[in-house]
Amino acid sequence: MKFWKAIAIGAILKVSLAACAVPTPATPTPTSAPSPTPAPTETPAPKDIVDVAAAGNFSTLVAAVQAAGLVETLKGEGPFTVFAPTDEAFAKLGKETLDELLKPENKDRLVAILTYHVVPGKVMAADVAGLKSAKTVQGEEIAIRVEGGNVFVNDARVVQTDIMASNGVIHVIDSVILPPSLKR
């Protein structure tokens, strides 16, 4: 009986001590912290033909567009396809010729030359390669041909294509093209 009494006292002590013990908090299971919602980023407005040209190798073209008073037109709704001569293409005209074209008294001639580089609508490179000609904003047609894997607009080679703008597309050419009416 002493044996059972000792076991009963031991069990009572064990339960009593367990009841008096300070409970240990349960360890929480790790959860991933909620990700903060990223602040909305503003998408920059797409650039129009003039802004795209100003950001590229077209400072002479942009200066000519400004001198001709065509900035607002080329910032307009469009769509436009611009065959854009590079600064190097304008340099082929010679400094004297370029300076002469940029004079206010030659604005009509400059407008004719610049609008001869613009085709109404958005004509992508794949479409250009399939054309034989296209009517320009100036009113006359440009000749288009594919030769040796290169696309030419009149005698200017297209060196880069499909530069997207919010109101059209730019194809880069290596020469300034002149309307036939100004060559006479």
Written description of the protein model:
By secondary structure, this protein is an alpha+beta fold. It has a domain at 49-176: FAS1 domain. The chain is built from nine helices and seven strands, in the order ααααβαααβαβββββα. Strands 2-1-7-6-5-4-3 form a seven-stranded mixed beta sheet. Helix 3 crosses helix 7 (107-115). The longest helix has 19 residues, at 2-20. 25% of the residues are buried. The model is unreliable at 1-25 and 37-43 (pLDDT under 50).
What would the CATH topology of the domain at 49-176 be? FAS1 domain
* Largest sheet entry: 7 strands, mixed
What is the terminal separation in angstroms?
Answer: 134 Å
Global shape: globular
Regions with little confidence, pLDDT below 50 for 5+ residues:
1-25, 37-43
Classify the oligomer: single chain
* SS elements, strand count: 7
Mean of all residue-level pLDDT scores:
82
Radius of gyration, in angstroms, nearest whole number: 37 Å
Order of helices and strands: HHHHEHHHEHEEEEEH
Tell me the number of helical segments per DSSP (H or I, 4 or more residues long).
9
The percent range for helix content is 25-40%
What fraction strand? Answer: 15-25%
Can you say what the CATH homologous superfamily of the domain at 49-176 is? Answer: FAS1 domain
